[in-house]
Amino acid sequence: MQTEIAKLREENSELQKSKETEQRFVRHEQPYLTLEGDNQKICYCAVCWGKDEKMIQMDRINWDKGQIKLYCSVCENHCIECEQ
User: Fold this and answer.
1) Which run of H or E residues covers position 46?
2) CB 6: neighbour CB atoms within 10 A?
3) Which of 19, 20, 32, 47 could anchor a disulfide with 77, C-beta 3.0 to 4.6 Å?
4) Is 6 inside any structural domain?
5) How many domains does the chain have?
6) What does pTM read for this prediction?
């Protein structure tokens, strides 16, 4: 019984952290997310978050005509980064 209670508390804590993180998301037209208050403007894959609630940092793979291409190595989502 104690083990089950501890497991449920841990699951509850993880759900709360996930909800707090999601509240900080800034969603963009393209399928990527940034976090409010993040000065580095790290881009995370919106597809991976929507599917598995995993924050996968996207790679900036190329500069093209002033635009930044983003790529997720997990789900292969790719898009153009909008102005931030």
Assistant:
1) helix 46-52
2) 10
3) 47
4) no
5) 1
6) 0.77
